[in-house]
Amino acid sequence: MSLYKKRLKLVKGEGVYVWDENGNKYLDAIAGIGVAILGHSNEELASAINEQMKKLVVAGPMFHHEEKDEALEELSRFLSFEYAYFGNSGTEAVEAALKFARLYTGKKEIIAMTKAFHGRTFGSLSATWKKKYREGFEPLVPGFKHIPFNNVEAAKDAITKETAAVIVEPIQGEGGIIPAKAEFIKTLRDLTQDNGALLIVDEVQSAFRSGKFLAIEHYKIQPDIVTMGKGLANGIPIGLTLTNFDVPRGKHGSTFGGNPLACKAMETTLKILRREKLIEKAEEKSISIEGDKVIMTRGKGLMLGILLKENAGKYVEKLQERGLLVNTAGNKVIRLLPPLIITKEQMLWVKETIEGVLNG
């Protein structure tokens, strides 16, 4: 039995392309909602995973293994955090971050943003804004409140000595690909430090895509906690919560988190990103969509949102008919999260195709 009988059925992928069951070819400009940053069927990654399958797949949280060391060593070439906690998804990474904030500060209040998306477990869902995700699951976790994104005065009013943490996306994904303003991020950093609260930066969707390893690097501030997932292992489930403070042993754990297979996939993915300079090249491949129906193109690098004057959903199927896969972020935004291996020429084809459909 299928829950998705009316949806496109994909059967294989290679590079930036995927094929459906009828042999139709599509340029995949959504990549599993930002997951396939190296594209599909990367041979080097497939070989590494295959070899790891023959060696050691699971170890359990009570043991150590070299694949974790190697993954963290590769990560350290990009970032400097003292502690790393593995999970199996971005949602789990956020859930861990919220737990750690309450544990470390001894306080309960978590401040999140309007239009934010942080996941679908009870803690991460409590930080998520959109009503349709929350409906039917209330009451959610108490102690959460939302303030308007990019509103400095609201932040000043909300963050107090009672605040355990503020959680923010440097570029809101599900909310419509909306970058944070520099003044807003600086205000959050200053206020959290002044009030003994932690600043959690959710990079689950925005990591790798903006021209920097983390999008928060554009703001030149240091968060207390960073969450990652999605493209970190190019499709192998993984989540990562980074801190500069320790969490007492036994207070948090995961049966599958940090397993050798996922760590090998993470190490290999990061190695390819570094060697091929794919992160640095993201900005030069960026595009802007023009047309009477377009208000603006926003985002950064290869995390883009095309804000329209009308509903964007009706254009998703039309673009699919032209061989281009995209999705939406909010009612009026076409979202682009293509693999980082995409070429400038392919991105120009994406631009031409979208403009052709919008203006046709």
What's the gist of this structure?
Its cofactor is pyridoxal 5'-phosphate. This protein has 360 residues and is α/β, with parallel strands linked by helices. It has helices at 31-34, 43-55, 66-75, 90-105, 122-127, 131-134, 152-158, 182-194, 260-276, 313-321, 344-359; strands at 10-14, 17-20, 25-28, 83-87, 109-113, 144-147, 163-168, 171-172, 178-179, 198-202, 225-228, 239-243, 294-300, 303-308, 324-325, 327-328, 333-336.
Can you walk me through this structure?
The chain folds into two domains: 10-34 and 286-359, Alpha-Beta Complex (Aspartate Aminotransferase, domain 1); 43-276, Aspartate Aminotransferase, domain 2 (3-Layer(aba) Sandwich), CATH 3.40.640. 32% of the residues lie in helices and 20% in strands. It contains eleven helices and 17 strands. α2 packs antiparallel against α9 and α3 packs parallel to α9 (260-276). The model is unreliable at 1-5 (pLDDT under 50).
Keywords:
20% strand, seven-stranded mixed β-sheet, four-stranded mixed β-sheet, Aspartate Aminotransferase, domain 2, disordered N terminus, 360 residues, single chain, Aspartate Aminotransferase, domain 1, alpha/beta, 2 domains
